[in-house]
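HUMAN: Forgive my ignorance: could you write out one protein's sequence and backbone structure tokens?

ASSISTANT:
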Amino acid sequence: MATSAILAKTVSEISEEALRDARIISAEQDVQAIDAARCFTALNNIVKFWQTQDINLWLTEEAVLPLVKDQQSYTLGPNGDHCTTADDFKYTTTDAAEATSQTVISVTSTSGMANSDNIGIELDDGTRHWTTIVSFVANDTVTITTGLASAAASGNTVYTYTTLIPRPMRILSARYASSLTASEIPTNRWTRQQYFNQSNKDSSGTVINWYYSPQRTDGELYVWQVANNVDNVLRITYMSPALVYGATTDALDFPSEWYLPLKWAIAAEIGPSYGLNNERQMQLEAKSAYTLEQVLAHDVEAGSIYIQPDFT
């Protein structure tokens, strides 16, 4: 009986299909290690190259970046500033006044917390104290690794999260809020020239513009104006990088509708390594281009276009 179950394939399965449909190996022939290795390299090259075409809606993520008072730029990635996915980001408040050097902190809630999570506690001096969680008593107290750098009043904000976001390939939009629970304000994307031509980069207030440079390992996000309060946050919509596959048993990080163009792309990519004749190579490249074009037409966000007269 047919079902609506999700179709899933591994690196080795899509590689075998590519080899057979390229007629590099026959239907009865086993896949050799050298053939699998070539497909493996081709797959990683293809998925990284495809990201230059603004595809992969399924890799679009939401993140929360707690802003730092007077800080102009933020590093985003596995070695970056405190920024995590919206699902991972947890919020609570202190439940009592805490003194300098205190390591056992009273909190309103411990929902979503885990040992070793990162924790950021708002201090009375206008900064946020970041450390890690040693342990906690449910909805009562949290024991932290490093004691508070200064005092924290009851009701101060407390943020926790587990993992930093990966380096964003691209930031699609960002919304500023004066606090995590405040209304969000859309912001504008700037070019590099627009940001660096801004003469007063220390201007403090509402973040209304930003420029993002993806770099190689961690991206750099520049904001203007700079935050004026430790509770200011930026909510970010970003494109996460595609997985780099490390083993042939890895599951493909693609929706099933992408399996066909992925198979033909691998076949076309490895064809020259096997000296396929020009006719066969052209057939593979045509198949690859056609199926990619078709799936790209599907991999777009539905939206509306608004047109109005210019009365100026």
Remarks:
- The chain has a mean pLDDT of 91.
- The CA atoms of residues 55 and 81 lie 27 Å apart.
- DSSP finds five helices and 15 strands in the chain.
- Helices lie at 11-21, 33-50, 192-196, 259-270, 278-298.
